[in-house]
Amino acid sequence: LDASCIDAMALLADIRLQRGELTEALGVLQDAVDAAPERADLHFKLGLALNQSGDSQSAMVAYRTAIRLDPDDPSPHVNLGLISMQQLGKADEAEREFRQALALAPRDLAAMANLGLALQDLGRHDEALGLYEQGLAMHPGAVELRWNRGIANLSLGRFASGWEGYDLRLQRTGGRDTAAFNFPTWKGHSIADGTLLVLGEQGLGDEIMFASGIPDLRASANRVVLECAPRLAPLFQRSFPWVCIHGVQRQADPRWLTDYPDIRAKALIGSLPRWLRRSANEFPAHTGYLRADPERSAYFKQRLGTLGGKRCIGLSWRGGTTTTRGNLRSMSVQDLRFIVSTPDVRFVCLQHDPTDAERAFAREVGMLVWDEIATDLDAAAALIQALDLIISVPNTNAHLAGALGTPVWIMLNAAPEWRWQAQGTASPWYPSARL
Q1: Which of 77, 89, 320, 427 is the 20 to 30 Å CA partner of 106?
Q2: Of residues 130, 48, 108, the one with CA closest to residue 82
Q3: What region, left, alpha or beta, does residue 410 occupy, with left being phi > 0 and alpha being psi -120 to 50 degrees?
Q4: Distance between CA atoms of 336 and 422, rounded to whole angstroms?
């Protein structure tokens, strides 16, 4: 095949990737690499496709081949570093790759931003902040550097300086587009003569955590309309009876807003803390701001009461996705053996989607599995409220427990997300949590 034909194959692979046709893209790229094994760019593209398909080990081989063929290109080093940091939890190896990329291209924005994240994962937050300032001197408008700086400050409990950077998520890939909601942005001001629209965003855990700010809005707005994930609507309506709750998929037609003609401003739920939680002292010492269904909770308490007076503890061991560092936020069920061997305790599975192997483990160790909580978040909340303690990785169950005021021990990796703070065992969001 001549060069133009191979270029066309590479372009076709790009189109396939944009369409989400990973298998087809991989086939085209492998053919192109076989036809022109000396081309570093093809190995790099193959690495991208392999990583998207979940085969990170083969992706790393492809990136290393690209480096061997073109030692002056920083991009494969950046992508190797990303796999090491985000998927393997090896921030030290990631740091080496990002530094190698910067040695090749000292102004490379991606290498600089990701080196800062690796330093944060290694607990070197002040060094990361210094790097972001150096980068911003070169790239004053760089959203990624300003975003990373905000996250670092939030991790250190420097909330006032962190929230402004956190709002830059709207300019990054995956941030919620609110253009269809043509209202002024709320900036903490009083709305005495109209309605404040609060829009859900991110995952269920995020919506639960940020909902801690909803009670504060009674002092700011005459009326509040909260758009949230449908699974959260019953729980939120019971917990905030003075709020108009609208559970809807985010892609839904926003014409439902015609029921609220007096909307004066809008706010994404993740932007509420910018105005309500500017210091550690502004986090309330609550005993739970969500309310489970009391009848369903009593039903679970009755079922648990038949277990002979044992303490009943809920367990959850998986969380996140491939794009939210799920492998670093999860455990193997076999890793739980040291927990479930505790005497005089009955354990209850809170994992909403246990695999066959996990169900077999549950049977072996006597862990209860109640499938009614699998798709019903309100039932899960009622069960959590009925338990004595929750032990969980950072997932929706951990957020639910903390928001309900149920004692919860949250098992974190060495470099947790900003919301769990860089140090300490207490959570500003959830007083009932032990980190």
Answers
A1: 89
A2: 48
A3: beta
A4: 25
Distance CA 14, CA 416 (A): 34
Contact predicate 76/66, CB 8 Å? yes
Counting Cα atoms < 13 Å in the Cβ hemisphere of 47 gives: 25
The tokens describing 4, both together, are 């133009």
H/E stretch holding 358: helix 356-365
- Residue 261, classed as helix, strand or coil, is coil
Place of tokens 């300490």: 424
Distances from the Cα of 35 to the Cαs of 14, 16, 48, 191, in angstroms?
17, 19, 19, 65
Mean pLDDT of 384-404: 97
| Euclidean distance between CA atoms 382 and 275, whole angstroms | 31
Distance from C-alpha of 208 to C-alpha of 381, rounded to nearest angstrom: 12
pLDDT of 325 over the 70 cut: yes
Is residue 322 predicted with pLDDT exceeding 70? no
For 309, 326, 329, the CA distances from 411, given in Å and listed in that order, are 26, 13, 9
- Which residues touch 10 (CB under 8 Å, ≥6 apart)? 29, 32, 41, 42, 45
Phi then psi dihedrals of residue 325, to 5 deg: 60, 40
| Whole-number CA gyration radius for the chain | 24
What band does 410 get if pLDDT is binned at 50, 70 and 90? very high
Q: Which residues contact residue 167 at a Cβ distance below 8 angstroms, ignoring those fewer than 6 apart?
A: 271, 274
